[in-house]
Amino acid sequence: MAAWPARLSPRHFSAPTVDAVMAEERAASFAKRSIKTSAKLAGLRMAVTMMDITTLEGKDTPGKVAYLCRKALQPAEPKYNVPPCAAVCIYPNMVRYARKFLGANSPVRIASVATAFPSGQYPLRTKLEEVRRATGDGADEIDMVIDRGAFLAGDHARVFDEIAATKEACGPAHLKAILETGELVTYDNVRLASEIAMQAGADFIKTSTGKVSPGATMPVTLVMLEAIRDYFFATGMRIGMKPAGGIRTAKQALAYLVMVKETLGEDWLTPELFRFGATSLLNDVLMQIAKTVDGNYQGADYFSLP
């Protein structure tokens, strides 16, 4: 998607006020929908195709990254007909190992966190160098963290400019802007940060790093989905959404898919426009798929850890 032209960078940003009560009530309603068995199985397999499975630990090694890539390519035994995951999400210095394992034409993309993940507290020059290194090593997508300190201090222009500069540094790679909603305090701030990120050229907006609590919640995600909807109506541009952090069960994943469909429509039910940040989610979804196919649960240890 095209970046917002730098010459049009606005110096003042505004967003609609969020009705917190309505957002929370509507978000809660999506978790109460009844989904029949055939639709449930299709939804679970769809959820797998939308997962960015992640390892973001200090003890990450090339071997662990290769294992993650193998899991993303074939999450379960062939009899379960489970498609590959959307991406692996890793630190920049692990990108070259993932690219070596996956090769050039893999269905699994390589996403790399950057811009001083998870704090965002590095100079811009250093952040951009990290982005260029990751894309140069083969990253297809960059998950950047916005500067929450600048945002909360009211320096919205700085946040915009850093996202726009990061988008330029990405080259052909897609950019996901992580808002870290758990630190933004209010729904109004989440809505405004979403607006800024989209205007600055982000291809996706993402809730969280997974390193701060709370991570993704359904009301916060709904606020961001509504921002995406309104941006699409205003510009014709489709921006993607990635809730991350705290989504652990298949039931939760299905509720998020219902929310996406009813807020944005079926066009967004694709890995091109919707992702889950998934660390522990994948195995629960695989357990539910096995239950639906076999008629009984497999133990949690039946599936390898992501």
Give an account of the 3D structure.
α2 packs antiparallel against α11. This protein has an eight-stranded parallel beta sheet with strand order 7-6-5-4-3-2-1-8. Helices cover 45% and strands 11% of the residues. The protein has helices at 20-30, 37-49, 62-73, 95-102, 124-136, 148-152, 156-170, 187-199, 218-235, 250-264, 281-294; strands spanning 51-54, 87-90, 109-114, 141-145, 174-178, 204-206, 240-242, 276-278. It has 306 residues and is of the alpha/beta class. The chain has eleven helices and eight strands.
Decide which structural class fits the backbone: alpha/beta
CATH H level: which superfamily? Aldolase class I
Summed over residues and divided by their number, the pLDDT gives a mean of 92
User: What overall geometry do the principal axes of the alpha carbons give?
Assistant: globular
CATH T-level fold name = TIM Barrel
Describe the strand arrangement of the main beta sheet, using strand numbers.
7-6-5-4-3-2-1-8
Secondary structure topology:
Elements: H1 20-30, H2 37-49, E1 51-54, H3 62-73, E2 87-90, H4 95-102, E3 109-114, H5 124-136, E4 141-145, H6 148-152, H7 156-170, E5 174-178, H8 187-199, E6 204-206, H9 218-235, E7 240-242, H10 250-264, E8 276-278, H11 281-294
Parallel strand pairs: 1-2, 1-8, 2-3, 3-4, 4-5, 5-6, 6-7
